[in-house]
């Protein structure tokens, strides 16, 4: 069944006003009066709804649904600005795997340099990708996307997290394999986890020191060295396995 995210509080009768949503519902998917869909309001609760007037884009909410597919912890994926369209790829795949937020920051070894105007356009594009992926994967929430203009702003946001893990290539090369499992095993439901990844060139020694000073812990992600766009997906899969599949 089709699922759509609706801005605002849940109401029993509503008229869809967002033009992109209207286009997808009634032109692409050809919804008609009497058809049923799942609507997800900002409270994250899924509700079964029926089209009562396809010309006025009017819906009636029938009932709440118990379906809850969010990870038991909030995972924020933070990456150094990567090249090409890797953030677009990550926005889609990290959403499917349950990330609550996708962040990116200007890492010391990031090749690309984005100004405020470029960042604003990038965020808009990434948010649309995350919305589509959240609908496809039947999420209860759409991940937030934020691109930091400075490293200092990124570091200032660390205080909101219960745990901070730094994916570090040198830890993997050294054969370190225990910290990730330990950290995930100690997470409690509802906690907030920040998982940091470098760009193509990795994280600089200075960045490692900065992140550790703010409470971060270096972790290896197994014996193989992964690309910048692959490592976050491995991490999210590990979180899901540790907290969902093993219980």
Q: Going across the biggest sheet, name each strand in turn.
A: 8-7-6-10-9-11
Structural class: alpha/beta
Number of beta strands? 11
State the shape.
elongated
Mean pLDDT across every amino acid position: 94
For the record, the CATH architecture of the largest domain stands as 3-Layer(aba) Sandwich
CATH topology of the largest domain: Alpha/beta knot
Cα gyration radius (Å): 20 Å
What portion of residues is helical?
A: 25-40%
Strand content: 15-25%
Number of self-contained structural domains: 2
Task: Please summarize the sheet with the most strands.
Answer: 6 strands, parallel
Tell me, what is the CATH class of the largest domain? Alpha Beta
Folded structure, characterized:
About 35% of the residues lie in helices and about 25% in strands. With about 250 residues, it is α/β, with parallel strands linked by helices. The chain has 2 domains: about 5-65, Hypothetical PUA domain-like, domain 1 (Ribosomal Protein L25, Chain P, Beta Barrel); about 75-245, 3-Layer(aba) Sandwich (Alpha/beta knot), CATH 3.40.1280. The strands form 2 sheets. A 6-stranded parallel sheet has the order 8-7-6-10-9-11, with helices on both faces. Strands 1-3-4-5-2 form a 5-stranded mixed sheet. α2 (about 85-95) runs parallel beside α3 (about 115-135). The radius of gyration is 20 Å and the shape is elongated. It is found in: Cytoplasm. It catalyses: uridine(1498) in 16S rRNA + S-adenosyl-L-methionine = N(3)-methyluridine(1498) in 16S rRNA + S-adenosyl-L-homocysteine + H(+). GO terms for molecular function: rRNA (uridine-N3-)-methyltransferase activity. Its EC number is 2.1.1.193.
């Amino acid at each position: 069944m089709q699922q759509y995210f609706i801005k605002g509080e849940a109401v029993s009768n509503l008229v869809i006003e967002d033009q992109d949503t209207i286009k997808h519902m009634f032109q692409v998917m050809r919804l008609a009066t009497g058809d049923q869909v799942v609507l997800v309001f900002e409270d994250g609760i899924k509700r079964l709804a029926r089209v009562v007037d396809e010309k006025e884009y009017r819906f009636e909410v029938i009932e709440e649904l118990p379906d809850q597919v969010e990870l038991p912890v909030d995972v924020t994926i933070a990456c150094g600005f990567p090249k090409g369209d890797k953030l677009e790829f990550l926005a889609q795949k990290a959403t499917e795997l349950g990330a609550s937020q996708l962040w990116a920051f200007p890492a010391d070894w990031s090749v690309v340099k984005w100004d405020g105007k470029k960042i604003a356009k990038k965020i808009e594009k990434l948010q649309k990708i995350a919305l589509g992926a959240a609908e496809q994967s039947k999420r209860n929430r759409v991940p937030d996307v934020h691109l930091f203009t400075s490293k200092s702003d990124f570091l200032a946001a660390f205080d909101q997290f219960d745990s901070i893990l730094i994916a570090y290539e040198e830890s993997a090369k050294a054969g370190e394999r225990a910290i990730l499992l330990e950290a995930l095993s100690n997470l409690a439901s509802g906690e907030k986890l920040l998982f940091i990844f470098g760009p193509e060139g990795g994280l600089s020694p200075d960045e490692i020191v900065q992140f550790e000073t703010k409470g971060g812990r270096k972790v290896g992600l197994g014996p193989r060295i992964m690309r910048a766009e692959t490592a976050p997906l491995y991490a999210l899969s590990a979180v899901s396995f540790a907290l969902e599949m093993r219980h």
